[in-house]
Amino acid sequence: MEKLEFQAPRTMHCYTLGTPGPETKHCWLALHGYGQLARYFLRRFDVIAGPDTVVVAPEAAGRFYVDTEGKSVGASWMTREHRLTDIEDNLAYLNELYARLQQTVSPECRYVALGFSQGCATLMRWILHAKPPLKALILYAGSIPDDLPYKTNSEYLAGFPIFLVYGDQDEYLTPAATEEYMSLLDRIGLKVQVHTFAGTHAVEREVLKRLYESTSPV
Question: How many other CB atoms sit within 10 Å of the CB of residue 102?
Fold first, then answer.
């Protein structure tokens, strides 16, 4: 058996709360988690969207049915199958989205990047690849890859606050998993501000409001 690999155009889907434009002062780039769709994921960000704040949620290209009846659809940024090409495709996708945003908003616009669950890993890969000027990076209920060049990018990563956010009843970030995660952050020298809340593996509106107040002051 031989594998034939090639690139072909594909239509990507992205959803926004608010319309990016010259008046946009704050732009949040929000990456959803495994099995989610961007338009539903985006709904909870309504508490921070406003006249000068736009939230942009790209949707991962790998879509699938999440139930046996074929009624509910979710998306995934990658799996272990064709992992490296999926990573490259994700980087190209986010590069194109970011370039389009830059052409639309003013140069003074402040960017906040948020990854939820599986979206954290994809976001961190893109951050270190593109090095966009960030106001803040939010890792919400998700881990980051251990194979990225964090130390060689330490100066860049020190240029903005990094928030590690998770619920105290998160079924994936258990105490053991959290301890291992913190050990990884210590090894790679990544300084984070830890914010916990009473809740599970979910994006909470009240948490988003507090993060907005911390990262996007008037």
Answer: 15
| Domains contained in the chain, number | 1
- Local confidence band at 148 (pLDDT 50, 70, 90 cut-offs): very high
Segments forming the whole domain that contains residue 20 = 14-215
Q: Is the pLDDT of residue 160 over 70?
A: yes
Rounded to whole angstroms, the Cα distance separating 51 from 170 reads: 33
CATH of residue 75: 3.40.50.1820
**DSSP conformation letters of 110-174:** EEEEEEETTHHHHHHHHHHHH---EEEEEEES----SSS-TGGGHHHHTTS-EEEEEETT-SSS-
The verdict on residue 119 lying in a domain is: yes
In a domain, 3, yes or no: no
Can you give the pTM of this predicted structure?
0.95
In total, the chain counts a number of residues equal to 218
